[in-house]
Amino acid sequence: MVQAHQTKFRLLFLALFGALLVAAVFTRPADATVLKPPPGKVFFGATDTGDGQDFRDFARAVGKHPSVIQTFHPWDNSWHSAMQRWKGVRARPMLHITTRADDGTELITPKQIARGKGDAYLLRINASAAKNHLRMYIRPLGEPNRCLNYYAGVDCSGNVRGGSYAYKWYRSAFRRIAIITKGGGKRGKINARLHDIGLPKVQKTRKAKKLPRRLRKAPVSIVWGPLPAGSPKVSANAPAKYWPGKKWVDWVSTDFYNRYNNWKDLGRFYKKFALGKNKPMALAEWGLWGADGPGFVKRIFKYVRKRDKLRMLIYYQDFGSSNPFRIQNFPRSRKMLSKFLQSSKFPKFAPGYPRR
Asked: Which residue among 130, 138, 148, 230 is buried most deeply as judged by most CB within 10 Å?
């Protein structure tokens, strides 16, 4: 009788252990790739002005060290200076990639990205992130439904642009960026992934004449981020037009400011993409635009509290001390923001942040 009970206990133990092992196998790698905050936590971040002292001043003003820093870079830009800032402020980076150079010229089109013209840059991202074990978010071509962006699919009159800016090229460019920057196999395996979605293999370019035999697995997480409804707000510019597919997106995100605070649009976006696609969501840019708004700040945090998929908030602070977004210029909102950030729900640091 005792032996039967022992046997039953052993079988029960083995079944429980097996279930836990399966759960570990199927959940930990995914979470590690997505770079979600710990359960019950939300990452709070701030944008990068190019000067680490601005990040520190912001942290001091709101009474909480942001765990994420978002840097805006044009295509093919070097990380040398940015890497030093990321390490200096001890925050996990989010790299937003645009196709507009600092002088206003267009560097590359969505079609060119999709066809492999920019592969040297993507290979460099993969190699650097893998070599440095750099846990980072990559936000390629954010706000594609904002007509002022060079890669937008609709112009400011609401007309579909087509050609090199057709929706299909944006979606294909996004997928290519995700596949190459993440890596995770011999080049032949990466080429097969590209081939499966109708894209050319990894391309030799003037800047990368010799291709790597293997693209190491990089700890990067891919963030897709249109506006909630589009600018202009026409059906041809809806976020769904730019959706690249669940397989190539780790986070969904959008941008939301007090000047354009259509909460219904935000709610529809959350329902369709965070809930509907079962993805964690970020407000990759949010903040005050030209006016103090403590009520807006309060509503943002109430919104986050009631929505489990919203796991990241990045305050947009623009550049310079006199800009219309700077939190220090809005004393009532700054105080309100500081009050909410005192909660332990918002950790000061993201695990594995870059270190010197």
From this structure: 230
Q: Are 253 and 224 in contact (CB under 8 A)?
A: yes
Per-residue pLDDT of the chain (356 residues; tens, 9 = 90+): 444 444 444 444 444 444 433 333 333 333 457 999 999 999 999 999 999 999 999 999 999 999 999 999 999 999 899 999 999 999 999 999 999 999 999 999 999 999 999 999 999 999 999 999 999 999 999 999 999 999 999 999 999 999 999 999 999 999 999 999 999 999 999 999 999 999 999 999 887 678 999 999 999 999 999 999 999 999 999 999 999 999 999 999 999 999 999 999 999 999 999 999 999 999 999 999 999 999 999 999 999 999 999 999 999 998 877 789 999 999 999 999 999 999 999 999 999 999 98
Domain map (residue ranges) of the chain: 1-34, 39-341
Architecture label for domain 39-341:
Alpha-Beta Barrel (3.20)
Q: CA 56, CA 44: separation in Å to the nearest integer?
A: 14
Pairing of strands 185-186, 214-215: antiparallel
Predicted model pTM? 0.90
Residues 144 and 102: their CA atoms lie apart, in Å, by: 18
